[in-house]
Specification:
This protein is an alpha/beta fold. The protein folds into two domains: 94 residues, Alpha-Beta Plaits, CATH 3.30.70.120; 161 residues, Rossmann fold, CATH 3.40.50.150. It is 30% helix and 30% strand. It has nine helices and 14 strands. Strand 8, helix 5 and strand 9 form a beta-alpha-beta unit. The radius of gyration is 23 Å and the shape is elongated. About 5% of the residues have low confidence.
Length: 297
């Protein structure tokens, strides 16, 4: 079935009003997109920032009268903002597509180091002799394509994992936890404050033949207070700084730590937060993001 889509150019201040208007008109879905390729990185706590040029997009059933829709939106806008012109807009018919298939086709197997591959579960395995991590990210973050995940996987591919215990703090899809087990780690605790992430981690571990005893998952307040050999934390700079003392307590003396989800200009602040417990000795960059590695004293 085709769809009627209207896209409105907006400022952050007016985007919520347009969203409410579209929903009142019967939109089946409303999305907000970046209209000018302006990145929004780490937001301030308690805020949900939008782009200066925000595209507010509403999706309607095929039998929607486009002219009547525009008349209603224009009238509502002029009643609220009488001195401002109605935003520029585009009304179009979208042919029905297999959106899930299009999403799946974007992901290809990615190699890290000599013997670690991350393979979408729906694609063929490039090297059956390697450590192949079969992944279905579902609703959780982490496919291996984002720079922060890639930086962590590169680090994992370089380490010796035999007999190691690990915490993957902010486990997302479980990609880092599973990679560590496939490379030889004996036990990895996956931690996330998103229950969907915990579900995705369990599902992906099972897909890779890994039991819940090897990769148990926890909400942050439930994590066992037992120190591990390796701490992985791919989150954001702000939370990493706030959790420095807690992550240090969960890392054994001489244990390794690798941190990511950090922008280049935030690296020094993160290093300073961890230096009371760790020798932070390596910073690796990729596309404005960094990974910081260290060892606990």
């Amino acid at each position: 079935m085709p769809w009627v889509q209207i896209t409105l150019s907006s400022t952050p201040e007016n985007s919520e009003f347009l969203e409410e208007m579209l929903l009142l008109c019967g939109a089946g879905a409303v999305s907000m997109l970046d209209g000018a390729d302006q990145p929004v990185f780490e937001p301030l706590k308690g805020t949900t920032p939008l782009w200066q040029d925000t595209q507010v997009m509403g999706l309607f059933e095929a039998d929607t009268d486009g002219d009547a829709l525009l008349d209603y939106l224009t009238s509502g806008w002029q009643d609220t903002f009488p001195d401002t012109n109605f935003p520029s807009h585009k009304l179009e018919i979208l042919e029905d597509k297999d959106w899930e298939r299009q999403w799946m086709d974007r992901f290809e197997p990615i190699q890290f180091g000599e013997r670690l591959w991350v393979c979408p579960s729906w694609k063929p395995i490039p090297d059956p002799t390697a450590a192949n991590l079969m992944l279905d990210p579902g609703l959780a973050f982490g496919t291996g394509s984002h720079p922060t995940t890639a930086l962590c996987l590169q680090w994992i591919a370089q380490q010796q994992w035999q007999g190691k215990t690990v915490i993957d703090y902010g486990c997302g899809s479980g990609i880092l936890a599973i990679a560590a087990v496939l490379m030889g780690a004996t036990h990895v605790a996956g931690v996330d404050n998103d229950t969907q992430a915990l579900t995705a981690t369990m599902d992906n571990a099972q897909r890779n033949g890994i039991s819940s005893n090897t990769i148990p998952v926890f909400l942050p307040e439930e994590i066992p207070h037992k120190a591990v050999d390796v701490m992985l934390a791919n989150i954001l700079a702000g939370p990493l700084i706030d959790m420095a003392a807690g992550l240090a307590k969960l890392t054994k003396p001489a244990g390794l730590i690798t941190l990511s989800g950090i922008l280049e200009h935030q690296a020094n602040a993160v290093i300073e937060a961890y230096e009371p417990w760790f020798d932070m000795h390596t910073v690796v960059s990729k596309d404005e993001w960094v990974r910081i590695d260290g060892q606990k004293r």
